[in-house]
User: Fold this.
Amino acid sequence: MLVIPLKDFPQIKILDDLELIIANYFEEESLEINDGDILVVAHTIVSIAEGSVVNKTDVTISERAMKIAKKNNVDPIKVELALRDGEIIRDTPVLITQNEHGLITDYSGVDESNAPPECFVLLPTNPDRSARKLHEYFLEKFGIHVPVIISDTQGRPWRKGSINLAIGIAGMSPFMKYAGSTDLYGNELHSSVVCIADELASAAELVMGQADEGVPLVLIRGVEYIKSDEDASEIIRNKSENLFQ
Assistant:
């Protein structure tokens, strides 16, 4: 497997044509992209291109947001935006929310890092739709099947540290299912399911970085996956399967 950072990618501005910019980048840099390669895209550039960016001066802070912000010593504007985008699961010591797509994150994924000046970046309105647009663009322009994963850095229950996870997917199943195969000792596997979409998003993060590296795109080559119309919503557990609440 090759994990290839796509360096010197141009800085994305609000309402840029992201699909066209990515396609032009590959052509101008004479970069090879093959049928079956996987493109991992940091959600930040997707959000900025789609206009999911809010200027701090445009936000009116509610009393509820102010109370939570004081308890957690957090910017009340960030809290206000988080409350607009998600349903509260808990509000202290960190505000944890669940959005309409089922994503459970701190502060609804509202982020100030890698955002335009005096702005917060929100999660894409519909990450699966964003991934699908990019996937279909590559199919139409280059005639190749390139699955797309939109990634975001998130925490995990009971474990310290954050990792990149897939919040939007197009062109591949998020899973590899091994039920029916056998292990080294000939034992049949009955329920082995691996979320390779999250694994690939995490692998991409190793070369994306978290600070000023400027690598929002990563190409992954040589990975076996299943072509599928499934999306990232398949990864979210139903409430009946939720083991942590």
